[in-house]
């Protein structure tokens, strides 16, 4: 049996009782909160949405007041290096196709018979400032004892090969090599104890398209929460350049595997492409936060590479594409239908909500003008062309990938600028 409360305890209890006025006031506050909670949440969600709806190229710099790894200077205040125009430059290309043996035959347009060369001689000129000139010596010295890694799809592989071509002439023939180990391709600069690598992971997460050679699967499936399947191969890199976009674009919905690819009965959910892509972006940022030291390493994300499949987008004839296009698009506001703005919005939303330091390379708008720079029909074909295809070159023109040398060298010039002058 509990003893009766002491007089001092009774006094405390009496003092702690709510007065009728305070009780009524508290009840009123609770009632109003419940009654209007939906309105409050609506207001807050609108505020949040408005802060995220700006275009991705306005993403504020992470660690703005801190010197980032590898930085040696700063871009001029107010200079957006991704906003500008293309100017003809007779000093380009930065290297010749025939002098770089690392370009895949799918990208060697001159060797495959492309008659024009003007697409190689354009330089990106930002409004109000200039890009620092690409310095191969500085880049190689910075990579001494380091590992630089490109991760993503064949478009990121094109950017990777471009970087190798920009650097390899400074390395003696017997001091460099390129080898492929499944999904990983490694270029080694022996005298620098440095590697520049590419890892095939078109979704970044585990998928049924992960085979580096046999991956032409139309019914694509990505496994939720599976980035570590590939991510274990990325650990230890000093500079990482991610990309992922094109492989997600199979329609308005996408298949997400909830369990394992080894499950006899697979649990697959259909979600919107935007939600699926958002999941991929969040997984990437979580991996970066866990595995990359922002004081020593740098991470980049290259935005969607535009394709030019529909000539009506730029005022051309119906049922045509990039085939036979040798001039660029002059309309500065041009945005093709093959580049989903909703995906750019997802990137902006996810990046702004994250405090993970990652540099966004917004190559989409500047690349969208370059309908002249695709490989088109001037590439090694995966399989022999039929008579019907040969009679209609538009039917097999590749309006996704880019000739090298060419546009993707500019992507690496922008990467160089953001690495050393963030």
UniProtKB/TrEMBL annotation:
Q: Which family does it belong to?
A: Belongs to the PC-esterase family. TBL subfamily.
Q: How does the entry describe its membrane topology?
A: Single-pass membrane protein
What GO CC terms are in its UniProt record? membrane
Q: Which organism is it from?
A: Solanum stoloniferum
- Does Ubl conjugation appear among the keywords? no
Q: What are the residue boundaries of the Trichome birefringence-like C-terminal domain, all occurrences included? A: 131-417
- Occurrences of domain Trichome birefringence-like N-terminal (ranges): 78-130
Q: The organism's lineage?
A: Eukaryota, Viridiplantae, Streptophyta, Embryophyta, Tracheophyta
User: What PANTHER family does the database record attribute to this sequence?
Assistant: PROTEIN TRICHOME BIREFRINGENCE-LIKE 33 (PTHR32285:SF62), PROTEIN TRICHOME BIREFRINGENCE-LIKE 9-RELATED (PTHR32285)
Q: What is this protein called?
A: Trichome birefringence-like N-terminal domain-containing protein
Keyword presence, Heme: no
Major localization listed first in the record, in broad terms: membrane
Q: Provide this UniProt record's keywords sorted from A to Z.
A: Membrane, Signal-anchor, Transmembrane, Transmembrane helix
Compartments in which it is found? Membrane
* Pfam families attached to this UniProt entry: PC-Esterase (PF13839), PMR5N (PF14416)
């Amino acid at each position: 049996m509990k003893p009766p409360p002491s007089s001092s305890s009774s006094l405390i209890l009496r003092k702690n009782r709510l007065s009728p006025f305070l009780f009524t006031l508290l009840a009123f506050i609770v009632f109003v909160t419940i009654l209007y909670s939906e309105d409050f949440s609506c207001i807050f969600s609108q505020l949040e949405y408005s802060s995220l709806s700006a275009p991705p190229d306005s993403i504020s710099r992470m660690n703005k007041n801190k010197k980032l790894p590898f930085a040696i200077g700063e871009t001029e205040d107010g200079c957006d290096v991704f906003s500008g125009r293309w100017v003809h430059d007779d000093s380009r290309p930065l290297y010749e196709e025939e002098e770089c043996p690392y370009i895949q035959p799918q990208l060697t347009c001159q060797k495959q018979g492309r008659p024009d060369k003007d697409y190689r001689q354009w330089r990106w000129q930002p409004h109000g400032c200039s890009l620092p000139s690409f310095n191969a010596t500085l880049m190689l010295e910075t990579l001494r004892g380091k590992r630089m890694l490109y991760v993503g799809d064949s478009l990121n592989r094109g950017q990777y090969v471009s970087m190798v071509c920009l650097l390899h002439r400074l390395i003696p023939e017997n001091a460099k090599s390129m080898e492929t180990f499944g999904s990983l391709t490694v270029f080694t600069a022996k005298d620098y104890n440095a590697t520049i690598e590419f890892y095939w992971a078109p979704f970044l997460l585990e998928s049924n398209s992960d085979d580096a050679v046999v991956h032409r699967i139309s019914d694509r499936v990505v496994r939720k929460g599976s980035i570590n399947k590939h991510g274990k191969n990325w650990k230890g890199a000093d500079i990482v350049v991610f990309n992922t976009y094109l492989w997600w674009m199979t329609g308005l919905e996408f298949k997400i595997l909830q369990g394992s690819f080894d499950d006899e009965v697979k649990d697959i959910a259909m979600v919107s492409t935007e939600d699926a892509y958002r999941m991929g972006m969040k997984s990437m940022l979580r991996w970066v936060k866990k595995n990359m030291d922002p004081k020593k390493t740098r991470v980049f994300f290259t935005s969607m590479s535009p394709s030019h499949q529909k000539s009506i987008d730029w005022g051309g004839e119906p049922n045509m594409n990039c085939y036979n296009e040798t001039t660029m698009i002059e309309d500065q506001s041009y945005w093709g239908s093959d580049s989903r703005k909703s995906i750019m919005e997802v990137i902006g939303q996810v990046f702004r909500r994250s405090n993970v330091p990652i540099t966004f390379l917004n190559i989409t708008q500047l690349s969208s003008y370059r309908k002249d720079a695709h490989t088109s029909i001037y590439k090694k074909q995966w399989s022999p062309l039929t008579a019907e295809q040969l009679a209609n070159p538009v039917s097999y023109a590749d309006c996704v990938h880019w000739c090298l040398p060419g546009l993707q060298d500019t992507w690496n010039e922008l990467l160089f600028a953001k690495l050393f002058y963030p």
